[in-house]
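Help wanted!
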Amino acid sequence: MTWSWHSEVALDKNMKILVVDDFSTMRRIVKNLLRDLGFTNTQEADDGLTALPMLQTGDFDFLVTDWNMPGMTGLDLLKHVRADDKLKTLPVLMVTAEAKRDQIVAAAQAGVNGYVVKPFTAAVLKEKIDKIFERVDG
Amino acid sequence: MAELKIDPQAPSFQQEMKDLAEDLLTKIDGGDLGKIVGVVNNINGVRDRTLYDEIGKLTRGLHNAIKDIKTGDELSEESGMGQASDKLAYVIEMTDKAANRTMDLAEEGMPLNAENLEGAIELQEQWKKFLRKELKPNEFRELSKKIDAYFSQTQINSKKISTQLSNILMAQDFQDLTGQVIQRVTKLVSEVEARLVDLVAMAGEVDRITGISHGESHKNEPLQEDDKKIIAEGPQIDTSLEGVVGGQDDVDDLLSSLGF
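Answered by r_m:
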């Protein structure tokens, strides 16, 4: 792993984040953790079908999505995002209970930027977000 | 509760068949075609009768298995399966409520704690100034007032936080209730399993009489590794299983091996 000598990443705290999960409690937890990290510009969607039109029209900077959802799963949402010319560079963090190696490999192949398995801690979420934007910005 | 056991008289089917077969041989030796056909008809008759009996038992067994799947709640006319769904829906509802209640309380408490903390930081700065004799008399009077107000405010906030914390504790009471519900559903599932095993035994009896053998159709379609569809499976309960990661560290290792 290559770390630059300045480990603190200057993140835009105003970036617009979409949190997608079918369970409202999990959306609330993720939003709370993001708020603790200084990100207050968050919106919610309860599955890929509601998330996709929001992403297409909403100017989001970051997508945090669950995998297992009715309607459209997070993996399909990720594939749609990567196939969309306007959205294909959007950083995507998957926060999910799916914990099989095949699944993680599939998510990586579909172009996910980070993968957090539930149950997770605030520290892990922060670390992954920092890492994603360090890579994107650097 | 209905009996789902295999008919203990089942061997008599074999005995009957054996007797008729011997009879058939005797008749064939005798050479009377009419009598031979008569015995063949008898053989068919025994087979059909036994078959209908067994299918009848199987049907009754299925019906009773569905009807009898009940755990506890005898007053309810509803089937055990319907109850199980309701019970699990109740678990979701309870855990959802508890999670939201806990988050409400924590969110209410956070600004109170922040107020205590910020107040203490601000007062400490001024107190240090005072110790360094950098405060003017009117500034000190101001500080005394602030300290006094801080004492009162901190007590109010701390009391509220205590209440919120004990309410957070209380919000975990769902674990007891949902635990009991899940235990009952688990019991129901084992009951269903036991009944299905009985039914399989009864169906086996039908197969034996009709001479049906089930081809190994499933074994003929090996799952192609490449075709295996990646689908969402929900949480993995047993992380020791092949292909399941043990936690975030494993995920990170896997991803870094893929160049992440």
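OP: Thanks! One thing I noticed: The radius of gyration of chain B is 38 Å.
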